[in-house]
Amino acid sequence: MTEHVAVVGGAGAVGTLYADAFAAVGRTVSVIDPATESGSDVRRPDARTSATLGAADVVILAVPESVALAAVPVLATVAAQAVVVDTLSVKSGMAEAVARSTLAAAVGLNPMYAPSLGMDGRPTAAVVYRDGARVDAVLDVVAARGPVVRVSATDHDRVVASTQALTHAAILAFGTALGELGVDPEVAAALGPPPFATATALLARVANGTPEVYADVQQGNPYAGEARSALGRAVATVDASCRDIAAFTALLDEARAALGPELTSASTRCAHLFDLLRTAPPRETNQEDPS
Questions:
Q1: 56: Cβ–Cβ under 8 A, 6 or more apart, which residues?
Q2: Which of 80, 84, 108, 206 is the most exposed place for a label (fewest CB within 10 A)?
Q3: Residues 6+ apart with CB under 8 A from 150
């Protein structure tokens, strides 16, 4: 029997990403999205939406956290045997909601890239809240397109606070400082070395993003504040170490140690990026989610 997948919020960028992925492997996909009149609010489903959810083997929640959390007890009733899949950027709250529920199975996915970039070859974090017969089948569909990294909800949120919240905060702080210095952007772009070109490219991507999406990375993650505080302390350490070569050398050693065994591959990746900066023509991109 062909699995039936219901994608709540399926008209959005993330919902479309997963609807297309499951349809591509032969699953029957139904989109539930009040924005396009294809179904009612999952928190208060009407008869048609309840029937769609009840017939689903997999229910994917490509919706904001408040909606996803409120949907859990509803789905425990109307989709009691389905695997419930969230796509939230923070997993602790969903883990608690699932623990309090009677859901048969639940797993959280977090695509670590903007949907506009596509799924192929890109990593996805997976948090199995409650295992079940179809959980592996869901993960297999995603793993066929790119690496799936399984982590706990707590580890997910701690890592994402570093890979997204810290990274975005550092990029935005760079942009704010750059603006305060008042350097002519065109002159800076013409003279800037590769690290500057890379930093400004990242700044353009983040600053052109959807404010609500990037704010959610900072506001929703319980470890994001800790990451920003660490960034503030680090900038102060850089400032203090500039007065003494021994202290600055120690700073470089400490920063390098943060990469651990990834140092060599990161160095190679940087060299490749700098080569691309020299040879690749710019292209326009549309971005809705953090990457």
A1: 4, 5, 6, 30, 79, 82
A2: 80
A3: 126, 127, 128
Whole-angstrom Cα distance, residue 78 to residue 45? 9
Domain limit, last residue, from 151, 173, 207: 151
Task: List phi, psi (to 5°) of 149.
Answer: -110, 115
Q: What is the phi-psi region of residue 3: left when phi exceeds 0, alpha when psi lies from -120 to 50, beta otherwise? A: beta
DSSP bridge pairs for 86: 61, 108
Structure confidence at residue 1 as a pLDDT band (50, 70, 90): very low
- List, for residues 7-33, the tens digit of each pLDDT value: 999 999 999 999 999 999 999 999 999
Task: State the Cα torsion 24-149-232-92 to the nearest 10°.
Answer: 90
Let me know if residue 62 belongs to a domain: yes
| 178 and 86 both lie in a single domain | no
CA 98 to chain centre: 20
The CA distance from 209 to 287, in Å, is 6
Which amino acid would we find at residue 126? A
